[in-house]
Amino acid sequence: MSLDNLPSIYVHKTPASEAAASGARMPAFVIWTIALVTFLVLTSLVANLYRSAHGMPYMAVLTEKLEDYDKQSADYDVIFLGTSETFRHIDPSAISAVLADNGHELDVYNFGVPALNYSELSLLTDRIADNPADGRKFVVIQNPLPVRGDLDTLLTDRGRYFRNGARVGNTVSEVACYTGTSLGLLRRIYSNSLAVTAETTGFGRLANTLFPAAETLQLTYDPAYRNNHGFWPVDRDLTDHVVARQGFASMTPDKMQAYIDGQGMRAPRESQLACRAGLILDLVTRLEAAGYTVIYLNPPTVKFSPLSNAVRDAALKLDPDLLVLDFDPAIYTEFTEPSLWFDESHMTGEGAERLSRLIGAELATLLAEVDTTGSASIATDG
Q1: Is 70 exceeded by the pLDDT of residue 359?
Q2: pLDDT in tens, 283-330
């Protein structure tokens, strides 16, 4: 008699035989979990291989300026780091001329990059710190733009590069130190979390490879800045998107008065400001460790002055010895003339030259003080 014909009470089934009898059927959710983890591991490996093979992607202005800096880094005595405000407002030739008139022959470089945020500024800081100062050299640093919150921008090649690997920490820091509204902070937490997850796991890059979006052109700029120490005035840049700004973002007398009356960007909470200032001072520390004298620049852009002044005050509260070139437009009222502004955020070449000559004079005063006392302080009081 076979076992199959025996009554069930005579057949002993062990747990192992019961599992075998069920065909080792694994719950569906376990199968899908294993498949998903395997998929993410594979896409992450592919993404890491892609990043290793391709390195840093092309990023308009930033890529060119890194190339130009690397070629002549040893020649620069004063480097200005910042956003498009630096890019459009700092005229190295005008600054060098004023310094020369005061007996200081120094080469100045404008390392300003449009739309520069903290993660990108941190990269430029590290690149400069990798070339320790040989003698008396200066870096003038500006508060970068806040982290972006729109997912489309975060998933561009430029956005991806700063949201993977060792650079994720900078993204986390700048989101945590966001100085805007609570709603804006939530948006940035959500968008940047998605972008970091998509890029780190490789899923976002795989999706973009399999289903490429319509090609979008990066904003281009007049390359004349490459032969002009990194500077080119905005009103001489005739690329389409720059010219268009004068239409939709022009500075009118009414707008200027509104900004003067405090209708620009609001001042954030003290905790936000302390966090933001701490990020900037971390960059200052890195540069000082490489032998540079670091100066913080508070620009005269009226639209952003409430935030700029608040960050300046927070930084000085954390480090009272911080050197500051302070061009608060409430003091330097000549920069509240609307005709000096190409748009709400950028002055014309005339405005840039005025500011640059003032900066040159302040740097000359600082250098004279260093030569006399061995230390320096800057007090710009208009």
Answers
A1: yes
A2: 999 999 999 999 999 999 999 998 999 999 999 999 999 999 999 999
**Calpha distance 298→305 (Å, rounded):** 9
| CB neighbour class for 286 (10 Å; exposed up to 12, middle 13-18, buried from 19) | middle
Q: Which ranges of 290-348 would DSSP assign to H, the alpha helix?
A: 305-318
- DSSP class of residue 379 equals -
Among 270, 315, 309, residue whose Cα is nearest residue 294: 315
Q: Are 175 and 192 in contact, with CB atoms under 8 Å apart?
A: yes
CB 226 within 8 A of CB 237: no
pLDDT band for 382, please (50, 70, 90 cuts). very low
- Neighbour tally for 289: CB within 10 Å: 10
Share of the chain above pLDDT 70, in %: 81
Helix (H) / strand (E) containing 357: helix 349-373
Residue 183 CA: distances (Å) to CA of 8, 58, 188: 66, 32, 9
Cα distance between residue 43 and residue 197, in whole Å: 12
Distance CA 352, CA 61 (A): 19
* Cα–Cα distance list, 317 to 111, 270, 320 (Å): 27, 11, 6
Calculate the alpha carbon distances from 137 to 133, 253, 373 in Å.
6, 40, 17
Of residues 79, 126, 111, the one with CA closest to residue 283: 126
Note the Cα 24 to chain centre separation in Å: 54
Between CA 358 and CA 378 the distance in angstroms is: 13
Average pLDDT, the chain: 86
CB neighbours of 204 closer than 8 A, spacing ≥ 6? Answer: 155, 160, 195, 197, 198
The dihedral of CA 65, 150, 141, 164: what is its sign? negative
**pLDDT value of position 47:** 64
Contact 264, 302 (CB under 8 A): yes
The one-letter amino acid code at 376 reads: A
Contact by Cβ (8 Å): 219, 312: no
If you compute the radius of gyration of the chain from its CA atoms, what whole number of angstroms results? Answer: 28
Per-residue pLDDT reduced to its tens digit, 243-278: 898 888 899 999 999 998 887 666 688 999 999 999
Residue 126's pLDDT band, with cuts at 50, 70 and 90, is very high
